[in-house]
Amino acid sequence: MREHAEMIANLNPEIPLIADADTGYGGPNMVARTVAAYHRSGVSALHIEDQIQTKRCGHLDGKEIVDLETFRSRITAASQARDRIGSDIIIIARTDALQVSGFDDAARRLKAAVECGADVAFLEGITSKEEGRKICEIMRPTPVLLNMVEHGATPTMTPQEAEEMGFRIIILPFATIAPAYYAIKDVLVRLKKTGLTGLQAEFTPKKLFGTVGLKDAQAVDAAAGGKMLSKV
After folding, report:
1. What are the distances in angstroms from CA 29 to CA 33, 51, 59, 74?
2. What is the tens place of the pLDDT at every residue in 56-115?
3. Cis link prior to 205 (omega < 30° from 0)?
4. Is 165 exposed, middle or buried (0-12, 13-18, 19+ CB in 10 A)?
5. Residue 232 located in a structural domain
6. Three-class SS of residue 203?
7. Which one, of 2, 69, 64, lies nearest residue 30 by Cα?
8. Residue 22, domain member (yes or no)
9. pLDDT digits (tens, 9 = 90+) for 69-85
């Protein structure tokens, strides 16, 4: 998780990255280590949740959560670690309690997490717009994050609708995964059937390298007196 986050964060350090830190990967020491590692990797914000260690996707059934004190210790460890290393990384507290113990307990957990140092509240798996409005109102002035997983437990909402409800951050985990899945599957099926990928003619090797920073690499090379990239 840290390696993937570091790779993504450093594609363009000017764009802040929110990264999932699951449960923090252990007790207080491991949570603290996770915060420090994510900070060094260039991550701007991370969310830590209250599921048990052997967790599952928040939009699947059968989730189990830890007790409130364990969740508090995770957030406290994250906040204290941030202070020790002088980091400005944002701590997002996520609770999966809604499907396990109900809305009131979920709100209570988020309130407790903010008391322990969390900057943002994240109620996973909201099932209605009414729940969204209610948690934003209860948590105000703490910003609340919406996890917009299409076709999961949460009704589909646009960023504009979410903002009107009171959310201040929205993440869309399927926004690139789903299109990539269908595009890759289609081209591989076509290759199997026809022996050809059918890729667009303009997608050349040079275009690919241009997409991942060829011009910047050429500029660095030329500025240092190099000539290896002058003609590519």
Report:
1. 6, 17, 28, 9
2. 888 888 899 999 999 999 999 999 999 999 999 999 999 999 999 999 999 999 999 999
3. no
4. buried
5. no
6. coil
7. 2
8. yes
9. 999 999 999 999 999 99
To the nearest 5 percent, what fractions of the chain are helix, strand and coil? 50, 10, 40
pLDDT at 142 over 90: yes
97 and 41 in a common domain: yes
Contact present, 144 and 134 (Cβ < 8 Å): no
CATH number of 60's domain: 3.20.20.60
How many domains, the chain?
Answer: 2
**How many Å apart are CA 105 and CA 97, to the nearest integer?**
7
Residue 167, phi-psi category: left (phi > 0), alpha (psi -120 to 50), beta (remainder): beta
Whole-prediction pTM: 0.91
Q: Which residues on adjacent β-strands are paired with residue 169?
A: 145
Structure tokens, 180 = 């990539």
Q: Strands 45-49, 90-95: parallel, antiparallel or unpaired by DSSP?
A: parallel
Residue-number span of the structural domain to which 145 is assigned? 2-175
Closest CA to 1 of 64, 43, 60, 32: 43
Given CA atoms 2, 126, 53, 110 in this order, what sign does their dihedral have?
Answer: positive
